[in-house]
Amino acid sequence: MQPSNSTTLNSATLSSTFTSTTPASTAPLSTTPASAAPASTTPIVAGSSGLISVYDPDPLFVLKGYKVWQGRRYVRCFQPADNSKAALNVEHAVYQRLGSHPGILKYGGRVAVADNVYFLKLERAEGDLRSLMPRYSIPPDQARLRMAIQIASSISYLHSKGIFHCDLSCRNVFLFHDWVVKVGDFGGSKIDSQYPLAAEEVRYELPLRGRDWEKRSYVKRELFALECAIYEIMAWERPFPELTDAEVEANYKRETFPIVDGLPAGDIIHSCWKEEFERAEDVEAALRREIGRESGLGAWNASAHLKGLFDWIFR
Ligand SMILES: Nc1ncnc2c1ncn2[C@@H]1O[C@H](COP(=O)(O)OP(=O)(O)OP(=O)(O)O)[C@@H](O)[C@H]1O
Ligand SMILES: [Mg+2]
């Protein structure tokens, strides 16, 4: 089944997509009239670093902020608001530095929703890939390889700009029509030498392998997370979905990883888990070779098939 076109989305679709996420700590607020009329927004869901709402004046975008406004009052505030504000500032700085890239969510800048309250205006996706996976049967190999290439290319671009995502996962990869994916949610990212506000989720975390936690390089950490995202796309499920985080951590410590035999790009995933890649662009190049090899095989099969048909007609 193909995903629905993003232009057909409505708040109901989004709300049902988003309710599967872990709600952040939020507190309902008493109705506080704003002195200036805020941009009207429709609340959707809380993430762990902010609140997402549909931006009513431009439904192709969502707003990400620490409060949700409806009409002239705000109805929900992220707690603690200061953490959310700090993450939003980082995310704004990242989007400004990144500019436009086909594999990164479009950024519409900051929008004033009330006096001195600014939220991030972000391209509206169908939702995050992980939440949407159960809705769709597994896409064809070529589509999954294309998704993997898009993510590897985005991560390579990020690194070329002095940024590490630091929380890359299919939770922060957003899905669009025709299996186009874009990376987003940069609130925990590392810019230059700044200390990041987030770290990878347990199933995406590079094992220590004798190193101290902070001695593991950010490149290696991100490449491990990239490979876990590619695994999740190829297997259409997280690594070891049946195990708890602690059990997965113990597995990784014993160098036990999910079986990749028979998966597209299985060898690439395995090499990256073993830290055999140095740069995201090398992963991207390997994936491009893989997709070329697969489509080459397809072409060969097609020509063999046509030759067989030709022989049959003219025998
Ligand atoms: N640009 C977007 N378009 C559509 N849905 C979005 C967009 N950005 C976020 N969402 C959705 O809003 C919800 C919250 O997203 P957000 O990334 O802020 O938090 P999260 O992923 O739950 O937490 P975390 O900060 O740990 O990643 C998620 O369900 C996500 O799918
Ligand atoms: Mg997220």
TrEMBL record:
It comes from the Eukaryota. GO terms for biological process: signal transduction. One of its GO terms (molecular function) is ATP binding. It catalyses: L-seryl-[protein] + ATP = O-phospho-L-seryl-[protein] + ADP + H(+); L-threonyl-[protein] + ATP = O-phospho-L-threonyl-[protein] + ADP + H(+). Residues 1-39 are annotated as: Disordered. It is an enzyme of class 2 (transferase). Residues 38-315 form the Protein kinase domain. Its EC number is 2.7.11.1. GO terms for cellular component: cytoplasm. Component of the EKC/KEOPS complex composed of at least BUD32, CGI121, GON7, KAE1 and PCC1; the whole complex dimerizes. This is EKC/KEOPS complex subunit BUD32. It comes from Lasiosphaeria ovina.
